[in-house]
Amino acid sequence: LQRGCLKMEKMVVVVFDSESKAYEGTNALSQLDKEGSITVYAEAVIKKNGDGKTVVLKTEEEFPIATLGGTAIGSLIGLLGGPYGVIVGATTGTLVGATSDLYNSGVSAEFVDDVSVILIPGKYAVVADIDEVWITPLDLKMEKLGGQVFRTARLDVEADQLRAEIVANEIETARLETEKKQAKEERKAKIQAKIDSLNKARKKKEEQVKQRLEQIKGEHDRKVKVLKEKAVNAHGDAKTAIDARITELNQNHQQAVAKWKNAQAAQLEKGAEKLEEKA
């Protein structure tokens, strides 16, 4: 890794025709990690069953299957085992869960669809959360094994979207409160039911913010731990690059936390306004 070239975090899926090739793929990732070409934060080998569901066959020793829930890689695996085309969820009742997994994984619906076209029943895949600068080293390794590589930079739009939803929720609630005051008696109950529904949705979003802050911290701590372990045996430019990446991760984490707290603030501001109105 050259000095000044910072790695970019990406989600990678490599599809293989056989389980043995998929395991060779994980070995190739480990080799690239040791060489410093990439940094692997989490990885898993999965199989697409005949019913279209994905089964996790293996994860790294320090990242057991039980800990996949709520993580980027776990969410991506869940999406790959869902209905073909995330939008299908709109008619099957799974759209909300799919949207949450998209946010957690940091990938787009288009990325999931692209992978799903190739990851058909009977196929295997290596799913990984990595950092890389150059794409060629990984591509060359996987192509030699017959793997088809899909990668995407991780997106971070969830907090902004949630803040917008919270604000929209509060605006709609305020409008309904005004309508209720002006409505005839026989309409008040129906308007109140809509207000109650919005309040219930708001509470879910508040809990979502709390959970995501915890998940973001856990994921960040894990990544920093991985890099610090690598830094112990690194020297010269390699150690400088790792230290720079840790600094970058810390800065990104602080920015992410600030965005989520900003989403929380949207709700707190509205709550304060209501208290002032009552006073």
| Secondary-structure-derived class | alpha+beta
Largest sheet strand order: 3-2-4-1-5
Number of helices: 9
Average pLDDT score: 80
Strand/helix succession: EHEEHHHHEHEHHH
Query: End-to-end distance, in Å?
Result: 61 Å
**Largest sheet composition:** 5 strands, antiparallel
Helical content stands at: 55-70%
| Overall shape | flat
How many E strands?
5
**Proportion in β-strands:** 5-15%
Radius of gyration: 22 Å
Uncertain stretches of 5 or more adjacent residues: 83-96, 274-279
Summary, kept brief:
With 279 residues, the chain is of the alpha+beta class. It has 9 helices and 5 strands, in the order E-H-E-E-H-H-H-H-E-H-E-H-H-H.
Write the layout of secondary structure elements.
Blueprint: E1 8-16, H1 19-35, E2 38-48, E3 54-59, H2 72-80, H3 89-92, H4 95-105, H5 109-118, E4 124-132, H6 136-144, E5 148-153, H7 158-182, H8 185-232, H9 236-278
Antiparallel strand pairs: 1-4, 1-5, 2-3, 2-4
Helix pairs in contact: 1-6, 2-4, 7-8, 7-9, 8-9
Explain this structure:
With 279 residues, the protein is α+β, with helices and mostly antiparallel strands. The C terminus is likely disordered. A five-stranded antiparallel sheet has the order 3-2-4-1-5, sandwiched between helices. The protein contains nine helices and five strands; from the N terminus they run βαββααααβαβααα.
Could you name the key traits of this structure?
single chain, 279 residues, alpha+beta, 5 strands, 63% helix, flat, disordered C terminus
